[in-house]
Every structure is written in C-alpha cells, then in structure tokens.
Design a protein that fits this description.
3 strands; 34% helix
Length: 86
Amino acid sequence: MDTPSYLIDRDDIAKLAKVSKRQTYRLPLPAPILLGPRTERWIRTEVEQALTAMPRQANAEPAQLERARAIKAAGKAPGPFDRLTS
C-alpha cells in the first residue's frame, strides 16, 4: 500500500534523526497515525518539529575516552597499567 509522502515510517524517522531504527523507540515522538493493527506512520512536519525541539548533548563522548584523548594530545601516552583519573 502506497502512503502519501508526508507520512513517514520508523525507518524514515531513523534517517532523519541519524540513529538506528531501534533507538527511535526512545525518541519523544508525536502520536502516530495507525493505518492498521501493526502499521504506524507519523506526519513528517510533526516529527521534524519534535526532533528540532530535542535538547542537544554538548559532548556525547564517554569521560574515559575524553581523558585519554587529552592525555594523548598532551604528549604522554598512558601505559597499560596507568589509571585514567581526573
């Protein structure tokens, strides 16, 4: 069944949000339109508004990786038994 282009499915939402399809279940999405018992679609403009309203993370990198990068940038490579503490 062909749906209008302004209705999008979970795969399209994943592409818009640049996440996996599984991660879309965690997104604060508007209520879907039910086309059948197992078929959900969302209005593209509503999803785009919800995604732009989401707060952005300043730094999504884990703290341990961030510290290791800082140590490497300072010129001291940590040894295998060095503790990466702040």
